[in-house]
Specification:
about 75% helix, about 100 residues
Length: about 100
């Protein structure tokens, strides 16, 4: 289980680094002082697509890790409440009397 959690942590860290890289690259490509020509448009679109993929991967990884960690939490079972002893025999007694009279 520890190996799986460490692998998930590694994948999550990789997705975070990818998000940072593509966000910075996209900021460079659309810098206000830079002209965007036909050639640069394809780079902007590719970088935006890769950024969206990295965010999706990070979201899936984080939900998976959260679910695994939540499943490892200890569940405390409530103490069983004592049932009232007088209610159960009283309900079955009239049924027994009816059966004998037939």
């Amino acid at each position: 289980m520890l190996a799986a959690l460490l692998a998930m942590h590694h994948d999550l860290a990789l997705a975070e680094r990818s998000i940072t890289f593509h966000r910075d690259r996209l900021a460079q490509l659309v810098h206000p002082e830079r002209q965007i020509g036909g050639h640069e448009v394809s780079h902007v679109l590719d970088c935006a697509r890769r950024l969206a993929e990295a965010v999706a991967v990070r979201d899936v990884q984080s939900r998976t890790v959260a679910a695994v960690l939540q499943s490892l939490a200890r569940v405390t079972t409530p103490a069983p409440s004592p049932a009232p002893a007088s209610a159960a025999p009283a309900a079955s007694a009239p049924a027994a009397r009816t059966a004998r009279s037939r």
